[in-house]
Amino acid sequence: MPLDKAKAPFTLPKLPYVEDALAPVISAKTISFHYGKHHATYVKTLNELIAGTAYEGLSLNQIVVHAAKDKNAAAKKIFNNAAQAWNHDFYWHSMTPKGGAPAGKIKDALEKSFGDLATFKKTFSQTAVGQFGSGWAWLVKDTDGALKIEATSNADTPIAHGGTPLLVADVWEHAYYLDYQNRRPDHIAAWLDKLVNWSFAEENLG
Ligand code: MN3
Predict the structure, then answer these.
(1) How remote is the CA of residue 34 from the centroid of ligand 1, in Å?
(2) 18 C-alpha to center of ligand 1: Å?
(3) Disulfide: which of 13, 31, 36, 120 matches 114 by Cβ 3.0-4.6 Å?
(4) CA–CA gap between residue 53 and residue 57 (Å, rounded)
(5) 56 alpha carbon – ligand 1 mean position (Å)
(6) Which of 48, 46, 10, 14 is nearest to 31 (CA)?
(7) How much distance in Å is there from the Cα of 38 to the middle of ligand 1?
(8) Residues 87-126: pLDDT tens digits?
(9) Residue 135 C-alpha to ligand 1 middle, in angstroms?
(10) Are 175 and 30 in contact (CB under 8 A)?
(11) What domains, with CATH codes, occur in the chain?
(12) CA torsion angle 142 148 150 156 (round to 10)
């Protein structure tokens, strides 16, 4: 991803589609706030926090990894904003208006790890819905090559812990509240059926 090489000051990466492309599952109004306000603010705040610090010369990935281990009080804020900047760019690419059923290598990998697609969807949905409060639901590749589903809280991200994410669903309320209110299960079901970018997941398989 280009983010691996980007250096400060960071700019808000372009969305890979127009703002109404994911409607009706995710409306243009949700995208305009989520991308144009939330994501943009994480990027802007990150630039302010790292200006004049040792973090300034690092890539976004490196900032996430280093700040996760940094015991300095200021590092937590840097971690939160850097990880949220990274997670959101990964999230936009995890979706496409042309979602549907997985095929090829990624389909084989899902079947090998979960048995069948229905079991993958059920497990992913349970994890996404079961994440208490704000966070993220991830499909990751384990070190043994098996695919796993995990949730992280708030800004936390697998890349801070050496993980290899393939896909992510944002389960903060700001991701779905305007369109689904409190119905996170319905949002996740529609997300899985209509919006997943399986080509992106397959690229991330490596
Ligand atoms: Mn979000």
Answers:
(1) 6
(2) 17
(3) 120
(4) 9
(5) 24
(6) 14
(7) 7
(8) 999 999 999 999 999 999 999 999 999 999 999 999 999 9
(9) 8
(10) yes
(11) 28-93 (1.10.287.990), 104-205 (3.55.40.20)
(12) 30
Q: 176 alpha carbon to ligand 1 midpoint, in Å?
A: 9
User: For 57-73, how does the pLDDT look when each residue is reduced to its tens digit (9 = 90+)?
Assistant: 999 999 999 999 999 88
Going from the Cα of 115 to the center of ligand 1, the distance in angstroms, rounded, reads: 30
Question: What pLDDT does residue 2 have?
Answer: 47
CA 191 – CA 73 distance, rounded (Å):
37
Q: How far is CA 170 from CA 7, 93, 115, in A?
A: 25, 12, 25
Residue 112 CA to ligand 1 center (angstroms) comes to 30
Contacts of 145 (CB under 8 A, 6+ apart): none
- Cα 52 to ligand 1 centroid, rounded to whole Å: 27
Mean pLDDT in the chain? 95
pLDDT score at 45: 98
Residue 196 in tokens:
């997943």
